[in-house]
């Protein structure tokens, strides 16, 4: 009975790992509240982001087996670096941004720069939702689950949103303004953030094996600093996107107003001419 209760608690905590991603989705949507994206499209991108975990896992296994076998194991510095950048970061960021391109890039809803951040973050958070639950399920006991829950809620889940959001932002900026580093540049930047984040976690194992426990514990600060830095980058990108989108919306509204006034004047002139024709016929 006690064992069953413990299993149930562990499962509930693992499933509650979806909460940080759902809250983050709401926060991202708040950024776009002036001209929000259709709810159905947002949900679709998040759902496909959830499904993107499947090809990511398959690709990671294939790459780790085919290439990683020729390298040192993950418990070494070389292996940690390869798995951080070449396996986790490169593949996961590619799968997440592919969701945006497959689902929404060519749809009419994608009509503003801010949409790159909204949809990119949504795809990343769909991915993070599943990954978070999987990580929590793999923990040995409730104490570890709670620790991992808190750390990932504050760091890994926002990280996935920020990394894929910055790719979407740079891709959208290139699309609408022909400016910035574009999709490839945004992808490489995101992989750098993601890879450094994972490396600071993976490298703790070889450090501890060599007896550098203090240095390994100090590495805990690296994911915190990287998440803050990524947040500052995306905040700046979001502010620029909103400023430019607002300017475009204002110009469009002004053009529509001018066109409406022009149409009204044309209608008035047409009506006056018709009145004159009728008056002439009666005389």
Explain this structure to me?
This protein has 283 residues and is mainly alpha-helical. The chain has one domain. Helix content is 84%, strand content 0%. The chain contains eleven helices and no strands. It has helices at residues 2-15, 18-31, 39-51, 53-66, 77-103, 114-137, 142-177, 182-202, 204-209, 213-218, 221-282.
Please supply descriptive tags for the structure shown above:
mainly alpha; 283 residues; elongated; single chain
Give the structure's gist in a few sentences.
The chain has 283 residues and is mainly alpha-helical. It contains 11 helices and no strands. The chain has one domain.
Low-confidence stretches: 278-283
Element pattern in H and E: HHHHHHHHHHH
| Cα end-to-end separation | 104 Å
Residue share in helix: over 70%
Total DSSP E strands: 0
**What does the overall shape look like?**
elongated
Q: Main beta sheet, described? A: none
Strand content: under 5%
Mean pLDDT: 90
Helix count?
Answer: 11
Secondary-structure topology with pairs:
Layout (H helix, E strand, L loop, with lengths): L1 H14 L2 H14 L7 H13 L1 H14 L10 H27 L10 H24 L4 H36 L4 H21 L1 H6 L3 H6 L2 H62 L1
Helix pairs in contact: 1-6, 1-7, 2-6, 3-5, 3-6, 4-5, 5-6, 5-7, 5-8, 6-7, 7-8, 7-11, 8-11
């Amino acid at each position: 009975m006690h064992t069953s209760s413990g299993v149930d608690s562990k499962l509930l905590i693992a499933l509650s790992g979806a909460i940080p991603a759902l809250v983050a989705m709401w926060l991202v949507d708040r950024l776009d509240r002036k001209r929000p994206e259709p709810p159905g499209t947002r949900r679709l991108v998040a759902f496909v982001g959830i499904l993107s975990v499947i090809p990511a896992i398959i690709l990671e296994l294939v790459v780790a087996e085919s290439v990683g076998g020729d390298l040192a194991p993950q418990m070494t510095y070389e292996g940690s670096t390869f798995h951080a950048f070449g396996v986790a970061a490169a593949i996961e960021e590619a799968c997440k941004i592919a969701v945006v391109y497959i689902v929404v890039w060519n749809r009419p809803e994608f009509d503003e720069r801010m949409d790159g951040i909204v949809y990119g973050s949504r795809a990343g958070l769909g991915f993070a939702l599943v990954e978070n639950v999987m990580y929590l399920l793999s923990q040995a006991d409730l104490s570890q689950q709670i620790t991992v829950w808190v750390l990932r809620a504050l760091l890994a889940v926002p990280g996935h949103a920020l990394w894929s959001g910055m790719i979407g932002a740079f891709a959208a900026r290139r699309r609408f303004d022909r400016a910035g580093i574009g999709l490839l540049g945004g992808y490489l930047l995101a992989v750098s953030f993601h890879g450094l984040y994972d490396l600071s976690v993976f490298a703790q194992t070889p450090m501890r094996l060599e007896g550098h426990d203090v240095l390994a514990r100090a590495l805990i600060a690296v994911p915190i600093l990287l998440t803050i830095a990524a947040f500052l980058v995306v905040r700046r990108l979001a502010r620029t996107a909103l400023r430019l989108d607002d300017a475009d919306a204002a110009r469009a509204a002004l053009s529509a107003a001018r066109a409406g006034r022009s149409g009204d004047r044309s209608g008035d002139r047409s009506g006056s001419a018709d009145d004159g024709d009728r008056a002439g016929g009666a005389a």
